[in-house]
Amino acid sequence: MTDELMKAFEEQRDRLRAMAYRMLGSMTEAEDALQEAWLKVDRSGTALVENRDAWLTTVVARVCLDMLRARRARREDYAGSWLPEPIVVTDDADDPERAALLADSVGLALLVVLETLTPAERLAFVLHDMFGVPFDDIAPVVERTPAAARQLASRARRRVRGATPGQEPDHARQRELVDAFLAASQAGDFEALVAVLHPDVVFRIDAGDLPGRGRPPVEGPAAVAERVLVQGRPFAGFARPALVNGAPGVMIAPRDRVVAVAAFTVAEDRIAAIDLVIDPAKLRRLATKP
């Protein structure tokens, strides 16, 4: 039975990992969740499950829900903004596994909004809206009735729609704006930088638990441009294009060591959000040149 369960689990691993990443916003934690889920599956050794795919989804979802609830207190010690762990592929990278992850990824801006939901809301929204899990299956995981689980997903959906800017669908145009942003940053051109920023642009920095490096979000084109030029210009020359969660972004890698990853959200033909991850723990997977 263990061999059959292992085969079923491995067949579903990519889907379960993508689901866990959306629920946790961290590929490291997603892998931990899958490991914990497998231990639970292995210990159960059940032969009575009719729908193993649904059962595995439920096991992973419950592990993720426990992890979401447990880590809320830890966030109080976080310096500045909390951002998801990015999935990154450089333009010259040959990494089929990471490319496969990108195919299933969602933007950092959406994951930031998901972080504002309660654990139960996030679970219901991710499972139903992103993976098509019926509310009858979601209900026991969140310890609600199916109708209440539907309401959880509905509330989450409204918050996501209200807080997430409409991403520019043209990938080439996204890259043009990111490249223009980089060129202006490298040249120290304040006016050119402001020109590519949305009137409601927000700049978030995730420094992890590094003392003194956390800052609240910066809002508005002038304030964002000033922050970028004052603090970011020395690093602009080390920037190289990358795909960050499937969208054009930037990896900062002096001496082939990644020190920052920037994700961009483009809306209404301007950069509407910049999410900069400098937390070493979230860049550990990217710490050396591919």
Q: Architecture of the largest domain in CATH?
A: Up-down Bundle
Morphology: elongated
The number of domains: 2
CATH class of the largest domain: Mainly Alpha
Oligomer: single chain
Q: Low-confidence stretches at least 5 residues in length (pLDDT < 50)?
A: none
* Biggest sheet, spatial arrangement of strands: 1-4-5-6-7-2-3
Overall mean pLDDT: 85
Q: How big is the Rg?
A: 20 Å
- Output the CATH topology of the largest domain: Butyryl-CoA Dehydrogenase, subunit A, domain 3
Largest sheet properties: 7 strands, mixed
Our estimate of the beta-strand percent is 5-15%
For the record, give the distance between the C-alpha atoms at the N and C termini, rounded to a whole number.
39 Å
Helix percent band: 40-55%
The class by helix and strand makeup works out as alpha+beta
Order of helices and strands: HHHEHHHHHHHEEHEEEEH
Would you report the number of β strands? 7
